[in-house]
Amino acid sequence: MNLALRVNGRTIHADVEPETMLVDVLREHAGLTGPRVTCGVGLCGTCTVLMDEQPVSACILMAPLAQGTEITTIEGIPEDDAVVRCFDRHHAFQCGFCIPGMVLTGRAMVAEGHAADREEIREGLGGNLCRCGCYLKIIDAIEEAAQ
């Protein structure tokens, strides 16, 4: 199956099987390493991308379903983005493995007005796991970005 996906503002072409997951197209055909495959069942958040500005788990989304949408990976977010700056200012990272998904989820929450307080932020980050335990700093960063 021939796919044409809009990723970070450019078109990516890939010839794949219909059941190919979006994360595999992004990594293997677009050369993007921000979305990662860890759990493979959409629970950990390391594969998170934005599809039409909404966070999705790219490890469980079949790539053909993403046609006609705009996909944004961490590579498509500018370094001067407010959420990125707040993550940096709050040192809201350690190993960095979860950070792409956390930043993208945080951006969507801020954009939608779903980061009004710490409890709402905690709830919104529920699909993203940080193995290093940087949750408090991540919440601080998103809280500041929302202000």
Q: What is the number of helices?
A: 5
Radius of gyration: 15 Å
Number of strand segments: 5
Strand content: 15-25%
- Point out poorly predicted stretches: none
For CATH, the homologous superfamily of the largest domain is named as Beta-grasp domain
Q: Mind telling me which CATH architecture of the largest domain this is?
A: Roll
Q: At the first level of CATH, what is the class of the largest domain?
A: Alpha Beta
Round the mean pLDDT to the nearest integer and report it: 96
Order of secondary-structure elements: EEHEEEHHHH
The helix content, as a percent range, equals 25-40%
- CATH topology title of the largest domain: Ubiquitin-like (UB roll)
Overview of the molecule:
- With 147 residues, the protein is of the alpha+beta class.
- The chain has 2 domains: 2-74, Beta-grasp domain (Ubiquitin-like (UB roll), Roll); 82-146, [2Fe-2S]-binding domain (DNA polymerase, domain 1), CATH 1.10.150.120.
- The protein has 5 helices and 5 strands.
- It has helices at residues 22-28, 82-89, 99-112, 118-124, 135-146; strands spanning 2-7, 10-15, 48-51, 54-57, 70-72.
- A 5-stranded mixed sheet has the order 2-1-5-3-4, sandwiched between helices.
- Helix 3 packs parallel to helix 5.
- The longest helix is centred in the C-terminal third of the chain and has 14 residues, at 99-112.
